[in-house]
Design brief:
nucleotide-binding, ATP-binding, aminoacyl-trna synthetase, cytoplasm, binds adenosine-5'-triphosphate, binds magnesium ion, ATP binding, Rossmann fold, elongated, BirA Bifunctional Protein, domain 2, alpha+beta, five-stranded mixed sheet
Length: 452
Amino acid sequence: MAIITNAPRGTQDTLPSQSYKWQHIEQTALDTARLFGFREIRTPTFEHTELFARSVGDTTDVVQKEMYTFEDKGNRSITLRPEGTAGVLRAALQNGLLNDALPVKASYLISCFRYEKPQAGRLREFHQFGVEMLGSASPVADAQVIAVAKSIFDTLGVTGLRLEINSIGCPACRAKYHQALKEYFYSHQEDLCDTCKDRLEKNPMRILDCKSPVCAEIAKNAPVVLDYICDDCKVHFESLQSNLDAMGIEYVVNPTIVRGLDYYTRTVFEFVATGIGAQGTVCGGGRYDGLIKMLGGPDTPAIGFAMGLERLLLVMEQCGCEFPPEMGCTMYIGSMGPKAALKAVELCAALREEGFYGECDTVGRSVKAQMKYADKLGAKFSCIIGEDELAQNKAKIKNMKTGETQEVSLDSESFVDFIYGGTIDEMVDYTDGLIDLKISQMNLQKKGEEDE
Ligand code: ATP
Ligand code: MG
């Protein structure tokens, strides 16, 4: 039975009491990116394995060790997406997005799958928000993409992230660097892990990214790519920095960040948190000018980033970020008997039509139990409808915090008016701000309409 009541290792549930945090992060990310012109793209959860092997690169940990790959019933090799860029590029090519005005700007919100050793901030199913900008080689684009991430962190109130940038040059300057790296790593060949021994010939830059402590120690003294980049790449990197300066975005140059594949070019960057443990990289991105062509598309420069939302949430909780409160229950309408229950249903519907959370009994509880439940929901107001109330067509609405009551006609209009009505000033003191905000906004709007 345990297999039924335990989720697979490395996966997580987001429970109803926690989902408002995710909604806040997701909405903020999408809205913020929209201010830079990025619109959401949705692509399939799985793609042909070949797409990831080619675009992520078959010398990477992701492709070599971490993919969830299976054969479907039609004998196709399918992989659950380990990241977002490949699917976006595939969709852009398949749907001719690059034939339109460039750059194409797309954002995405996805679950990703990687077979890794689960730990804090490292899961087998995790979530990413990312953006891609296709069709600009200019360093202005790099800076704008970085600014999207920065702006999301700022809007969420995240502090203490360090932006680290680097340039890994272009294929022209890469050759010289590869040569220097190979020479260096060959001199430490015996100590490298088996995977890295393999990478030595094929892709020495990946060794710089290896998680094995021994390899990481060796990598510390390796030649750095910034000493090898050509003049064009230097100018590009300097211009990126002027653009970041112009937006007041602070950064440090970290010459050890790499994305070791040929189609990754020039800018690479990370936002790193100190204090959430080893899994400190919340966001990683960079330029991939050669990738679209490599996938069979037109020669199109591009840049993007992806942020890990589980890690982002960890950072937010650690630095005490505030989440907007959930909308609480505006009114619980209790009832006694079937006729009154129908009335409660009708009045709740009217409240909801105005955008308020109205609740009534859906279980068949006693009145006493209903009121206990209203308390548990944290309802702002409650009332009980019984024989008497139906006969007089009136009910007493109780302010659950102060205990004050007010008699109101048993019809939709009167109930809605009550919510909007004279109680506003005292309600502003309430803790769950969302309802108050909504009411005061609606009142302002109404007042504006009346003034016109
Ligand atoms: P790491 O070096 O931590 O393994 P990565 O280089 O594999 O990260 P990317 O492929 O650049 O990560 O993915 C972008 C972001 O997605 C990371 O910065 C991180 O925030 C998040 N991420 C990556 N893998 C995981 C995972 N297994 N669980 C949770 N978040 C992840
Ligand atoms: Mg990884």
